[in-house]
């Protein structure tokens, strides 16, 4: 569908570049044998986003990206908005992540094994959306899952945490032996693109069970 839209010629300028980049990213995810379900989903969402934000140039005859190499500017300076346009474009990153203890940041959290080693991050207009994959975890002969994740909105734990959105679930065996749906991918927004750490609060059923046995 996306390639058909490009061939129709109705998409020009920055919109065309965004769709082309999304198509290229999707093809790489499909062709890469190391791609996971998270990579496929994020590539699909980027493609959907690029199509949903298609805007036709006000002057189609202008060629949008100025292919004839005319670098002239009009008196209003409107032809020199490339810097602003780039700031508005969505960018995608794969970021390595790990979960560490909040009060002893040299130690890895017990819940670290319940998250994927990479997060997918989209940035636009100085803000970011983060997609993080989850999986089952074995702790002290118990098999459990990360059931909830809350995100502290600031750079500390002084404010009230907010529940992350469950973007996708998967069916797995619960601790009681029954099949249940658990978070596979969670998503949350951040007001900035420049953070080296984010404070979170998690619930892992296996950890809760171990703590109850220790009481």
Question: What report would you give on this structure?
Answer:
The chain has 215 residues and is an alpha+beta fold. Helix content is 27%, strand content 30%. The chain has 5 helices and 10 strands, in the order ααααββββββββββα. It has helices at residues 2-8, 13-31, 37-52, 82-88, 205-214, and strands at 91-96, 115-124, 127-134, 137-139, 142-144, 146-151, 162-163, 165-173, 179-190, 200-204. The strands form 3 sheets. The protein has a 5-stranded antiparallel β-sheet with strand order 1-2-3-9-8, covered by helices on one side. Strands 7-6-10 form a 3-stranded antiparallel β-sheet. Strands 4-5 form a two-stranded antiparallel sheet. Helix 2 packs antiparallel against helix 3 (37-52). The longest helix is centred in the N-terminal third of the chain and has 19 residues, at 13-31. The protein is globular. The relative contact order is 0.12.
Topology overview:
Elements: H1 2-8, H2 13-31, H3 37-52, H4 82-88, E1 91-96, E2 115-124, E3 127-134, E4 137-139, E5 142-144, E6 146-151, E7 162-163, E8 165-173, E9 179-190, E10 200-204, H5 205-214
Antiparallel strand pairs: 1-2, 2-3, 3-9, 4-5, 6-7, 6-10, 8-9
> Helix amount, in percent?
25-40%
Biggest sheet layout: 5 strands, antiparallel
Strand order of the largest sheet: 1-2-3-9-8
What general form does the structure show?
A: globular
Structural class: alpha+beta
Q: Name the poorly predicted regions.
A: 56-79, 209-215
Measured distance between first and last alpha carbons:
58 Å
Q: How much of the residues is beta strand, in percent? A: 25-35%
Q: How many separate helices?
A: 5
In total, the number of strands is 10
Rg over CA atoms: 22 Å
